[in-house]
UniProtKB/TrEMBL annotation:
Stated name of the protein: 3-hydroxyisobutyrate dehydrogenase-like beta-hydroxyacid dehydrogenase
Species this protein is from: Herbihabitans rhizosphaerae
Domain 6-phosphogluconate dehydrogenase NADP-binding: start-end pairs: 3-155
A Pfam family recorded for this sequence: RedAm-like_C
Annotated keywords: Oxidoreductase, Signal
Length: 285
């Protein structure tokens, strides 16, 4: 039977290991704070004595705090990793993913980088999606095992693409949550409960989400013309929004950056454009 190791047993790493155990897979675990492995060992996992021991499995999954911790694991397990498949599910940047891919290739280690689009409680359910990029051969070979964690999506041979999608999608999530929290604060100042507000917000957001592909196509085409809401009109709306927050004593911090981008674009002479036009201020220079 193929052996799997999970290195890093925080909330997410422990969830990954439990998914493997639930699927009946031979699972070895290691964590720098050894006590964190206790519950998983009681559930059937094998405790590795060292990082190198954990790196002796066919498939080695690393899910640690950050890329400094990833490099610590790689340095300690380097001798055992050649000939293995390394899957790094630690959140990181595209550049960090590519650096690990180069390091692995130089040592005969097959590498996949990944981005987990789920919370720990979603792992091993249909609601979890894990993005992968890097070695397609490794993805194909281990796909059945990786699907234990959730829906798998392969994004190509560039090891940085999983991280790029991961972080960009998180931008969308945090932007949405920021708007939610700003709205809850403003509604709350008027005596509206978070539950009542959210009940009305959800249908509006669902309708708005339907327009996202149109925004993406406009950006790709460089055509920000609109027959709906111009930036000049939305700039006026933001002034009203800010005034309502000021009247209520509610900080405008979470939405102010979007207002500022709209105002800059209007000042630059693009007031008749649609909202997608603000992306021109965000593009890499």
């Amino acid at each position: 039977m193929m052996k799997v190791s999970v290195i890093g047993l925080g909330l997410m790493g422990a969830a990954l290991a439990r998914a493997m155990l639930a699927d009946g897979r031979s699972t070895t675990v290691w964590n720098r704070t050894a006590a964190r492995a206790g519950a998983l060992v009681a559930e059937g996992a094998v405790r590795a004595g060292t990082v190198a021991d954990a790196c002796a499995s066919d498939l080695v999954i690393v899910c640690v705090l950050d890329h400094d911790a990833v490099w610590e694991v790689l340095r300690d397990g380097e001798a055992a990793l050649p000939g293995r498949t390394l899957v790094n599910l630690t959140t990181g940047t595209p550049a960090q993913a590519r650096a690990v891919a180069v390091w692995a290739a130089e040592r005969g280690i097959t590498y996949l980088d990944g981005g987990i689009m789920a919370s720990p409680s979603m792992i091993h359910t249909p609601h979890a999606t894990v993005l992968y990029s890097g070695s397609e051969a490794a993805f194909d070979r281990h796909r059945g095992t990786l699907e234990t964690l959730g829906t798998t999506v392969f994004l190509g041979s560039d090891a940085g693409h999983a991280s790029a999608y991961d972080l960009a999608m998180l931008c969308g999530m945090y932007g949405m949550l920021g708007g939610l929290f700003q709205g809850i604060a403003l509604a709350g100042a008027e005596g509206i409960t978070p539950t009542a507000f959210t009940e009305r917000l959800l249908p509006f957001l669902r309708a708005t989400i339907a327009f996202l592909p149109d925004e993406a196509r406009a950006i790709e085409a460089g055509d920000h013309s609109t027959k709906e809401n111009s930036l000049a009109m939305q700039s006026s709306g933001f002034r009203t929004f800010a005034a309502a927050c000021a009247d209520a004593g509610v900080p405008f911090d979470l939405v102010a950056p979007v207002r500022d981008l709209v105002d800059r674009r209007v000042a630059d002479g693009f007031g008749e454009d649609g909202l997608s036009s603000v992306v021109e201020l965000l593009r890499a220079q």
